[in-house]
Amino acid sequence: MNDFQAIADRVEIEALRAEFSDAVMMRDRPRLASLFTPDGVLRMPDIPVEQIGREEILAGGERLQSQWDFFVQNTHPGTIRLDGDTATGRAYLHELARTLDGREGLNYAVYHDRYRRTEEGWRFAERVYEVRYLDTSPLTGTAPRAAAAPAPTAASFTEPATAGRLERVAAALRANGFAAEILDDAAAARARIKDLIPEGAGVLTGASETLRLSGIDEDINAGGRYDAVKPRLLAIDRATGADEFRRLLASPDYVVNSVAAVTETGSLVLASGSGSQLPANAGGAAHAVWIVGAQKVVPDLSTALRRLEEHVLPLENARALEVYGRPSAVNRLLVLNAEPHPGRGTVLLLREAVGY
């Protein structure tokens, strides 16, 4: 390698490290993930975190950044050692942060790096984050509120997410252990259900406008293809068959439902007035499938709860008054942050808005 090439490589690697800090500060998570090789690794043993591949790095960044009130990262140049198409190096960091739950502090840290030359230019093959000093004393400064992102409006709760946001949500869900697919519309989801659920399986459907409007509820409960749980529930005398009623609700082979919201960090939020349908969704059912319209995508959990209270509940309340003659309420809330049993939960994200 000639001296000119070595200088050019060092300049590009230093620019790569600066791009990393800029993507962090600007909360540009897709750009951050793109700075790694496809099989690149981000390790933070002190946290602990290990993210392998761009999808995991993207989803992990979304989860972390959704917790910030503010975050500042200053990166200082360290050593770079070139070895052909690979290199190693270190970068030194001074950071301060406060999370939405009140944790705060400042630290000094080191990134131990491995770099690789690719067709896209130099990329991180590995970054290992080592904390050298941590001070959790209360910070006296604040983040100017005017700089905060505007809160979602009521209208934004009905607008379908863009293709890019759906891709980010799907990546975050997969990183959290869910299977996730993006489909064009409710008709595609209706067809996909037949692939996902074997004929003759016991299937419970949730009380969902998405299922009703898509025709999925009718397919399952009146189509004859499955051992539908809901018709069996309706035939039970609640006074004498309460135990059987609860068992059927709690542990079907499959539960098919929708959600009130799905976050860009890969969490699902469900609500119920009675709580009867939540056990199957939480883990009682052997398998779960959630069909989610594109308008249900929100940035984080706090916005998901706002969507539930300000948008979903009024609409469900009106429906409950018309159908049952009594109002609805959020008496039970279920948040699924991850699926610990691989293959159990599948989320079908639709490109269109369905339900509310």
Describe what you observe in this structure:
- The chain has 356 residues and is of the alpha/beta class.
- The protein is built from eleven helices and 17 strands.
- The strands form three sheets. Strands 1, 2, 3, 4, 5, 6 and 7 form a seven-stranded mixed β-sheet that branches.
- A hairpin with a 2-residue loop joins strand 6 and strand 7.
- Helix 3 crosses helix 4 (163-175).
- The chain is elongated and about 80 Å long.
- It starts with a helix and ends in a 6-residue tail after the last strand.
Could you give the topology of this structure?
Layout: H1 3-25, H2 29-34, E1 36-44, E2 49-52, H3 54-65, E3 68-76, E4 80-83, E5 86-99, E6 104-118, E7 121-135, H4 163-175, E8 179-183, H5 186-196, E9 202-205, H6 209-214, H7 216-222, E10 227-228, H8 229-234, H9 242-250, E11 254-257, E12 261-263, E13 268-272, H10 278-284, E14 287-292, E15 297-298, H11 301-323, E16 332-336, E17 345-350
Parallel strand pairs: 1-7, 8-17, 9-10, 9-11, 11-14, 12-15, 14-17
Antiparallel strand pairs: 1-2, 3-5, 4-5, 5-6, 6-7, 12-13, 13-16
